[in-house]
Specification:
NAD(P)-bd_dom_sf, 9 helices, alpha/beta, Gluconate 5-dehydrogenase
C-alpha cells in the first residue's frame, strides 16, 4: 500500500456528505473548508444568505462541492424545514457538524428570559433536534460522524457569559449521550473545544488588546488560536480513522485548558 492510499484509508472523506451548521463564518466556515478539501460534499446551514453565498463560492473555487441552505437555527419550524430540504436535495448526511452559536454577554443578573431561550435554542436544542433527525439514519446505514463545537466554557465559567456556558456544558453532555446511543452502530460522536480564537462571536473580546495578550500568555504555545488550527482535528474526527474515538471532547486550544 502506498503512503497516499494509507492516508486516504484513514482520512479521506470522498463520497461522504457533510452538513455544517454555522458554516458561513468563523470556525464553522473553516471546518467546512477542511471537510470539502478532504473530499466531502459540503452543505452549509446558516441564516446569513450573503455569507452563505460567499462561503460556498470560496469552497467551490478551492475545488470542493458545496451548497447552502438558509435557516435560523433558533426557529424550530425553520430548522425542521431545513433538515427536510437537506434530505430532499442532497440526501441524508454522513457527517453532521454543529458550529452555529450565539453568546449574549450581559451580567447574569441582567440576562433576560428571551436571551436565555435564544441561546439554548441555537446552541443546544438545534444540535439535539438535528441529531434526532439524522442520527438514527446514520446508525441504520452503519456509518456516521457527529461533531459538536463546544467551548472552554463547557468546563469553566467566564464572566458575562452565563447562558452560553450552560449551553456548551449541555452540549458536551449531549455528545456523550448521542455517543452512547449510536456508537455501537458505527456512529462516532465527539466535540471540539476551541481555545481563544478570533471569530465574529468574539470580536468584542478581541477589541481589548490587554485581554487578548493575557489569554495568549495562558496557552502553552504562547499564542491565541487561528481558524486553520481546527482543520486537522475536524478531518480526523469526520473520517474513517476516528471509528474508535467517541464520546470525547477534544480541546484544540494550545494547552490553555491545562494551564
Amino acid at each position: 500500500m502506498t503512503a497516499t492510499a494509507y492516508l486516504d484509508a484513514l482520512f479521506s472523506l470522498a463520497g461522504r456528505t457533510a452538513l455544517v451548521t454555522g458554516g458561513s463564518s468563523g470556525i464553522g466556515r473553516a471546518i467546512a473548508g477542511a471537510l470539502g478539501r478532504a473530499g466531502a460534499e459540503v452543505v452549509l446551514l446558516a441564516r446569513n444568505v450573503e455569507q452563505l453565498r460567499a462561503a460556498t463560492r470560496e469552497l467551490t473555487d478551492a475545488g470542493a462541492t458545496a451548497h447552502w441552505i438558509e435557516a435560523d437555527l433558533g426557529d424550530r419550524e425553520a430548522l425542521h424545514r431545513a433538515a427536510e430540504e437537506m434530505a430532499r436535495r442532497h440526501g441524508e448526511p454522513d457527517i453532521l457538524v454543529h458550529a452555529a452559536g450565539v453568546n449574549p454577554r450581559p451580567p447574569l443578573d441582567e440576562l433576560t428570559t428571551p436571551g436565555w431561550d435564544r441561546t439554548m435554542a441555537v446552541n443546544l436544542d438545534a444540535p439535539f433536534l438535528l441529531g434526532q433527525r439524522f442520527g438514527p439514519g446514520m446508525a441504520d446505514r452503519g456509518w456516521g460522524r457527529i461533531i459538536h463545537i463546544a467551548s472552554q466554557q463547557s468546563v469553566r465559567a467566564f464572566g458575562n457569559s452565563g447562558a452560553y456556558g450552560v449551553s456548551k456544558a449541555g452540549l458536551t453532555a449531549l455528545t456523550r449521550s448521542q455517543a452512547e446511543a449510536w456508537s455501537r452502530y458505527g456512529v462516532s460522536v465527539n466535540a471540539i473545544a476551541p481555545g481563544f480564537v478570533r471569530t465574529p462571536l468574539n470580536e468584542a473580546v478581541f477589541a481589548d488588546p490587554g485581554r487578548t495578550e493575557a489569554m495568549a500568555r495562558r496557552t502553552m504555545t504562547g499564542r491565541n488560536g487561528e481558524l486553520d488550527d481546527f482543520a486537522g482535528a475536524a478531518v480526523f474526527l469526520a473520517g474513517p480513522g476516528a471509528a474508535y474515538v467517541t464520546g470525547q471532547t477534544v480541546f484544540v486550544d494550545g494547552g490553555f485548558s491545562v494551564t
